[in-house]
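ARCHIVE CARD
SHELF: 3
SLOT: left
DATA:
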Amino acid sequence: MLNRRLIILFVLFAGAMAGLALRLGQLQISEAEKWQAEARTFVHRHTPIETARGSIVDRNGVIVAQDVHCYDLAIDYRAMNRDDRWITRTARQRLRERDVVERKEILEQLPREKELVANLLLGIPEAIRQQCGISREEVRARFNEIHTRISLLRQDRWSRVYSRNKDREDGVSVADADLKNEIKEETVSHTVVPNIRDGVANYFRQHAGEYPGLVVVDSQRRDYPYKDVACHLIGVMRPIDKAWLDRERLGRNLFDLPNLLTEEDTGNLGGYLPGDRAGEMGIEALEEKKLRGVRGVKLMELGSADAERRIEPRQGGHVQMTLDIKLQEAIEKAVMEPSGKLRMGADNQTHAVAIVVLDMEGRVLVMYSSSTYDLNLYDEQRVELNTNTEEMPLINRALSAAYPPGSTIKPLVAAAALSEGLVRAQETITCNGHLFANRKDQFRCLRYVNYGLTHGPLPLSQAMEVSCNIYFYTLGQRLGLERFLTWLDVFSLGRDTGFELRTGNVDGNIPSREVLQDASTAAAESLQLGIGQGRLAVTPLQMANAYATMLRGGEEIAPRILASTPEVRTKRAVISPATVAALREGMELVVHGEKGTARTVFAGMKMRVAGKTGSAMTGRKMRVQGLRVDGDSDAWFVGYVPADKPQYVISAVMEFGGHGGSNAAPMVRETVVQMENFGYLPKVD
């Protein structure tokens, strides 16, 4: 009986040992990698090492955006939540600082000290409001933002820990215990007000005892030395949202990266954490990946003699523009100067304007749009800027606003007609004041409308000089809509020019090819296009690019703002040297001819400029003191300099300005003078 029991016990013991051996073998062999990773989760702790964002510089290396040292006002998350354990520890610390060390005294005074700390915490939002000059609502919003950030991190902890344990068969999860622990962000300070003034920083340092949990910390901020100059191009930064964070989170997970052991296996250290900022507009957004840099990481191996291993951060790269920031600053200052009246339209009111200077290799030298805003104050003024529907300062009118080009289209129309053999440069077309003998109230010349006079027979150069509508109605009629559309594409009108900045960029508008199905509509449309009206809208950048393409004989070079962008050339049509010469003759007469529509503005200038004026009727409404009223024509001037050897194309538009010759051309004259001052042209004026 005893032997039998011993045998049974032996068999059971042997079976248990065999089972244990099998399980150990499974753990150490087949599941070794899984459990090694699990173990590393508890012995490895990873802390990010911050990087520095790269600078943006202009063509001459002048810094226009950079990270600089500053102070942030931050609050301990536990203080913000008025956590009782934190209040207790803080109260004990305050008592010790007053030499209250006896246990009995501490127990007697602790309740009163805790109450005092709790009351001081209640006064922190008001102190932030008063010292930092922000509203109570804004303080609450910033506290809520911190709460949201921590909530996202805790949700991330849940998803990560439970994903590690979802396949466990023993029913025991480390998640429950793990999730009871505070995440690091719940035990540190979080920025409430970034970039506080030195005086505010000194105040809170001197009164630290009155605001427990509130600290002044060293930080970095994005600084824009030229404030509002070229603000639309440079762009701004903003805190990332949840969608961005979900898409590009830092690391596989930041604090439990079990496989982060070598520099070749860094996870996604170029990713983001809650509270990070990223480029929102302009070059800050376009070059975000290059500017951002890559965080480093510090690996702590708990219990190891070699306790710390590091992967160093990589600073963001610098980005260089083709823009000359000092030249642009001078032009903006001149245009904005009230005494110069360069933004004053025919109605004696100031209007929004845009100016583009493009060199003949496609590089943007100047791109100005009014109204502007100080990039350093964007966060504070975000709501105001977004709700300003009268000036719309966030719109880059050089890229994001399209206008009918009016008579500035006429050199391009002439280039198409000459290239198609539909007219000769010396061939005359007679202006009778109206295109059709039996329809004297339509398709008329402005000279006929205003004075009842006609231009008579005109060759191309003189038609350009006086901007005769009848001449160009005729060219539009000869081209027909189908050929017209082909040539609009040659000049990159109505489509993407290839410019790097696409956010907010518009392609303008041209008639669709569906219009060709109706012969009478197509015929009328081609007439209107001949003088830059009808279903045609273009941006100032597109017009500068189109003129450059024309002057190069039909070869387009995609305009660009980044020095690193390679030159892209496209040849969609050939415009002969003889045709280009004829067009240039006409555009010189516009400025220097006896009857030129821009002769008065450029009178006395030694630097010879050539180009074309335009006054484009628009069906848009303009806002005046909150009301939408009918506006005057958009005023245009598009030209090039020097007239004898084109180096730069200049495009300028004034919304509802009136007349191109008297309201847009003065901005171009001032631009040329400033280009002389900065050495881009011989200084002769």
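SLOT: right
DATA:
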Amino acid sequence: MAMKPQFAGVLFGAAYYAEYQPGRDINRDLDLMREAGFTVIRVGESVWSAWEPREGVFNVNWLAPVLDGAHARGISAILGTPTYAVPPWLQRKHPEIAAQSANGARIPWGSRQEVDHSAPAYRFHAERVIRAVVSRYAPHPAVIGFQLDNEPGVALLYNDHVFQRFIGWLKNRYGTVERLNDEWGLVFWSHQLSDWTELWRPEGNAIPQYDLAWRRFQAKLTTEFIAWQARIVDQYRRDDQFVTTCLQYSQPGISEQDLGEVLDVAAGNFYYGMQDHFDQRGRLPQPSHWTTTGTAGLLRQADRAFATKQSRFLITETNAQSIDGSHFNCPPYRGQLRQAAFALIARGAAMVEYWHWHTLRFGAETYWGGVLPHSLKPGRVYKEVAALGKQLATLGPLMDGYQPDADIAFLWSTPSRYALQFMPPLKADGGPDGQAYERIFDSFYRGAIEAGLQARIIHVGQAVGLGAAELARRFPVLVAAGTYCVTDAELDLMREYAELGGHLIVGPRTAYADEEARVRLAAQPAGLAQAAGAWYEEFSNLQTPVRIDASPNGPLRLGEQAAAQDWIECLIPNGAEVLAGYRHPHFASFAAVTSKEAGQGRITLVGTLPPLELARQLATWAVPESIKPPFGPVAAPITAASGTTSAGQRIWFVFNWGWDERQLSATAPLNEITSGDPYPVGSELRLGSWDAKALIEQ
């Protein structure tokens, strides 16, 4: 394993595919990159057919001019293994490597990632091309790291041999069919097995315990695949070269925490709606399941990437111009590229890399805009990118050892995400909502961002690794919302966290089921109700919003528009203080929010998806001692984020997510990093439309 990478600065660049533009002047491209302040490019991962145009015939020298030219200009490279897009000759020779979908059909060729990456024939040919490419370029001085595959876990694999491996995995996990019958409750609908050969295929499955095991197994296959590639690359890479893979965090076949354990550094592909999608309040709908809207959506992507390894991360792809299909064209307003970059860096990004350098004239991503437009001539976007590159050259050296600050922490549970995709408690467009987990999580996360707080996402397994005492010391406020599947040990951790001084905020569906997605036969939230001084047995979807009123003597102050939507857990106080209730003929007999001291800390129960006003006030009340910006309190459309460097300096980033100019007043001496302008106490900080500043406290 190579040394753990230490990113002192901020890498800046784009994916570069000279092979996609025949006749391009590589030297001119690289000169433009250098002038734009680029320090890194990503190359090679998409074109297996260029590396191996015919079986066993390798052409590995075509990339050398790109890497030689980059190195001569001080630009590094991340080299990708080309395993996610297989060449036609391999598809034709081995049709059995095609991935099989849930309907039993093989996924047709013609796109990418149609392959069963566990198939022996695929592995044979993939290993051969990996070795050919990596052995040729690992010694190259431009290559600083390797990207293994690309956005793994895009599809669940239903191939016959995968199913047989699943049975073997179940045997190792459960031992006997009798135990499986018991753990999965297979007496239901007469599903009890007498032999492993009787296990039905997942295509027709309706049992949630089966589905959760199937999803865990699929994530294991993805982690195994990336770890397998890492072991091959390990044989060639230098000690100063890292391995990563670019994660698309919405993919169904991944567990990002598990993947993080086999990588040197986490990396992700971050896409977000721009233009008015950047409005801090996120009033426009999410463009797609992998493209966020609003400031909170942007920041949640970054915080989730940081959580992969609880350390700085790389952005291997992000918006330069319009991103998505030909029907969704929203290039950034002036200033938004800088805003997005600064926002992601403030939350721990050690690299910002655009998809991609030049907009393509052909292919499925013809209208995914690059730094250069279709004319391939530098335009407005290039000029803004180049201006940002110069600023990052000044900011980067100060980011040595940077760690983003956190006022409040949020538990992330991948098993709960799987379980709530299979049995969603929420609906969308009249049917079950496959993004129910994210909706529950985001309703609390967005409130914290709107309250001007800084968030940290921590996986449940990482929290267990810290232990209750250390968790309470690092994060005085912890939100568990949608944390549906929890083990007894994880329940104990939450309760002990509160007893040792933490404030645990419990949102809908938390602790409802155990690690097998079996409902806990106890007053809900199970294992927490007694300590929380409140419980519930009924829950309801809401057909129309239900008004929420704050208790007159409580800490919350809600306006007339505060209303529960989508979901209610009918909380019954049993020693807890009621902070909010419902204005409704039936639901008025239940509490909306309760809170009670528990040991040295506190447990607060929230029985609905909190509207933004309630979520914001809850976060503000729970975190009275937040890290205060040195320019006074901020409110929409202004946000601020900060972090500390290894030298102990605090760097602040402040943003204006709107058209109107805003002013702030310095309450401590500050210097703007990119311009060098000083801001003594009492001086005015002006933020233009869609503006961002990086400041250092003196």
